[in-house]
Amino acid sequence: MSDGMAEVLPVAGPEQSAADTATLPVRHRMVLMWGIMALTVCQFLDATIANVALPHMQAALGASADTVSWVLTSFIIAGGICTPITGWLSDRIGSRRLFLMSAVGFLGASALCGAAPSLAAMVVFRTIQGAAAAFMGPLSQTVMFDINPPSKQAGALTLWGTVSMVAPISGPFLGGLLTDSLNWRWVYYVNLPIGIPAVFVLWRLLPSRPILRRSLDLYGFSMIALGLGAMQLVLDRGQQQDWFGSWEIIIEAIVAVSCLWLFVLRTLSTPHPLFNPKLYQNRNFVAGLGFMVALGIANISLSATLPTMFEHMYGYPVMTTGLLMAPRGFGLMVTMLASTRLLKLMDFRMMICIGFLILAGALSLMGNWSPDMGAQPIIVAGLVQGLGLGLIFTPINLIAFGTLSPDLRTDGSSLLALFRSLGGSFGISFIVTMLARTGQAVHADLATHITAAMAPWRGDGGEVTAGDMGRIDGMVQRQAAMIAYLANFRLLTWLMLALAPLPFVLRKAGQPGAAR
């Protein structure tokens, strides 16, 4: 224990077997867990809470529609660059010290974001916030495993997973509520009353992993940092810059591919790579990384794009849009809270398979939406989608993360977080691109079938006015956008169906949820 704090003592009683003892036993374990959860809420909320406030920031900071997007981009890029180094920093300076430093840095950056006087200052503060959040995510998951005995790890991960999955869904609603009720600066200030008491709890109770003098593969880190940063720029700005019709995107793509390839070569050739080679030898863990990408596509990308659909296609205000996202979070909580018991009753591979099938069913329902429907189909599809996501998250994390030895947990957690984030970035980029391109193609096709005789509005003398044609064009655009959304939902349906049988490639040995 460092930082001058009193030693946190084990509480294992005689009723606990040696095989069912936490890696880092602590007093007041539940209090510490809720402190970690409070910071996790802040971290995951900030991935989406600022989205709805961007127009207000643009006006207040004197930014253009193009430049204000850097408020989101800077957070994402900083997180992608810093996540891979979490394990090394944790070993080098201690997990306790790193967690406290990143939590204080995150809250300090949140306060500075709320007070930012200009766009340049906002981007700098969001970069600091994104870097701090990158450390907090893997460390919080690692601590939840370390302080709980194996028999309670499934429940602890369920609690952590519920927060990490529901918080991004709740972000747009909470952001809209704060922006409408107070002002946009409160989407950042809201972290302070939640996070400050949690930091105090961590300062009092958080134990530390042993400090290891582990060398840093600086070349490997430089390559993966440059590669991931360039990749995030490609994904975030590709559609806006017309993809490979822009030299900016071409150069960024070349940098991304080259640096990531050099990172792979470095990992295979150096005796001390950035990530321990034992991680790649664990088949369940490697498969879990692939499923994390799928979860990022299914959860993060839809959480980011559905609110836009509800607002633009159906004309719902921000508050109503947030409420329409709530059934998704409710369904997710129901199955995640039940997953601990379900893992004791059924093969975890079958549970994941059923989750993907339910998710495919929900996306199939969404593929039949119409522009003039009410809210009920949205609520039903959102609830079903949440039920499927909840069945997938806990077993995937347990079989991927729970099968690692304690010394590999921080590195493993950072990789899982990184791949989930990449899945979300890929999903958002793909959906936005398909919406734009499919919408344009459908609009062009529909426009060829529109004639003046079809106009429901007639001007004086039976002629169609410019205003009439403008309204007709608006109707065509709405229909084209709807068809583009439905095409995305149907494509994602087939993706989820294709993923459903893949869990059976995982090893059944070590069924998660039981003491090991």
Task: Name the CATH homologous superfamily of the largest domain.
Answer: MFS general substrate transporter like domains
* Average pLDDT taken over every residue: 82
Structural class: mainly alpha
- What is the assembly state of the chains in this entry? single chain
- CATH architecture of the largest domain, by name, is Up-down Bundle
* Series of secondary-structure elements, N-terminal to C-terminal: HHHHHHHHHHHHHHHHH
Q: What form results from the Cα inertia axes?
A: globular
Specify Rg, calculated over alpha carbons: 24 Å
CATH first level of the largest domain: which class?
Mainly Alpha
Largest sheet: none
Count helical runs: 17
The separation of the N and C termini measures 26 Å
Q: How much beta, percentage-wise?
A: under 5%
Low-confidence stretches: 1-16, 512-516
* Count of extended strands: 0
CATH topology assignment of the largest domain: Growth Hormone, Chain: A
State the helicity in percent bands.
over 70%
Instruction: Indicate how many domains the architecture comprises.
Output: 3
Q: Keyphrases for this structure?
A:
single chain; 516 residues; mainly alpha; Growth Hormone, Chain: A; 3 domains; globular; disordered N terminus; disordered C terminus
Characterize this entry briefly:
It is built from 17 helices and no strands.
